[in-house]
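agent> fetching stored inputs for the heme C docking request
agent> found them:
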Amino acid sequence: MRGWFVFLLALLCTGPVAKGETASGQLLYAQHCAGCHGTDRLGGTGPALLPQNLKRLKPEKAARIIHSGAAATQMPAFDQTLSDSDIASLVALIYTPLDRVPEWEMEQIIGSHVAPGPESDIGGRPVYSADPLNLFVVVESGDHHATILDGDTFEPIHRFKTRFALHGGPKFSNDGRYVYFASRDGWVTKYDLYKLQVLAEVRAGINTRNLAVSGDGRYVMVANYLPHTLVLLDAADLRPISVIQVSDLRGNTSRVSAVYDASPRQSFIAALKDLKEVWEIPYSDDPPYYGPVHDYRVEGPIGEAAKFQVRRIRLDDYLDDFFFDLRYDNLIGAARNAKNGQVVNLIVGRKIADIDLSSMPHLGSGITWRRNGVTLMATPHLHESAISIIDTGSWKKVARIETLGPGFFMRSHANSRH
Ligand code: HEC
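agent> prediction call returned; pasting tokens
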């Protein structure tokens, strides 16, 4: 009897309240969040907000991010606009699964592919007189356009509408003729900088992070937040070659934070958001054998042997931000809230050192240079007014330079003393 009573009471109390909470969450979401995270929470300029993408984020932490924003990103603080109970209903909403998450596997990717037309002959000359190897491609994130600038005169040559919310780092073919764009909603565009027109397009995901072009110019790899996949494309016409499901050996899936080309190693390196692993995916026809200590997984196209097979490198911690040395022998990474940086040697496939790097180093924007026969690396910190200098031989911090405020990006030049 008593059990029933408690059950009924629970129903009466939580049922309608939970419903009302989601409804108000939905209204608030449409008003304040949909513009960046997508009307259906599948992502836009901001990432998809679905339970399967928030596994690493505790609800309390999500509430704090909504309240105070995320440092050095476009995620604004809502403490001035939303009450604590508003924020609570938004948190409840984003951890509620969608009735249906759209599928985006090989079939849908093939269906979206727009191949080059017969008129797209590869030959020809630029349709403008500027030096085609000295152009700027300016991605205008606010209004979804790109402008091609003459690098000598800084005059615009051409401006065109792009897909929605392009990633700011377009990638180029080695000859400089083609540029590859990835949009946050998964579209990959190959654009001809001679003819100033789109050559091919494909939608590789629903919520996409970035793409990399292989050093040999043959492949494009796309990193997705949704679904949890890496998608390999033929760089010539963006034809999909394979979809790699991203999960550990127990089947826990992960978003892919980013993929990079490691030309000296002839491989792609993928950083995973939700697993303590970094993946290396060789693209050379004759990939090196790393020995039986690694778990290989045959995911690549049949008949391709070891090419495109995933080499998993296990880590002590998540890699949220990282930096490669010039030869891609080492990866220096840090988790967002960790006390230390970790150095992962890609040749032996494991962590070889810890670096004392607190206060959120922004490793992705670090730089290296040679000084007295030693290669040094510098990184700014997002939460500290200082730059850390690290000796990449001993992996010790050798200097700390105070700055007037926290840093975001660093750049240098071979001819600069600074
Ligand atoms: C101006 C664009 C913008 C608006 C508006 C916006 N966000 Fe965000 N949001 C972002 C971006 C960009 C990120 C990714 C930040 C990063 O790189 O860490 C983000 C991240 C987040 C995260 C963390 C996700 C994760 O996996 O760590 C949450 C939670 C979030 N937003 C919730 C919301 C909610 C709820 C609203 C509405 C009240 C909202 N955001 C409005 C751009 C926005």
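agent> quick read of the result: The two ends are 78 Å apart (CA to CA).
agent> awaiting further instructions
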